[in-house]
Hints:
6 helices; 128 residues; 66% helix; mainly alpha
Amino acid sequence: xxxxxxxxxxxxxxxxxxxxxxxxxxxxxxxxxxxxxxxxxxxxxxxxxxxxxxxxxxxxxxxxxxxxxxxxxxxxxxxxxxxxxxxxxxxxxxxxxxxxxxxxxxxxxxxxxxxxxxxxxxxxxxxx
Length: 128
């Protein structure tokens, strides 16, 4: 007889960190302290949904897909307001060009609505 509770505990222990990172990327506003809690909350809600459907997900061999789908469900339609406007992009010096480009990319990322971020994270949406 299968130990569904034990299987779910093992799955959730192994998948909670990557799922939380995905949630953070989808919900990030640019304020790490403010962004961490919504990502964790959405992750635990997603795992709760997986638990409710664990027998089917485990039988199909796709609990990760169920968890990601649950995380993507009901994403906000608009970008979350941060209360501040992004700083202007300065012209890079040669030694810090990578940092400036990464900073500009992150600021551009945080202006996108969470639903607009999904296709950028998943080249093949079927993966989600």
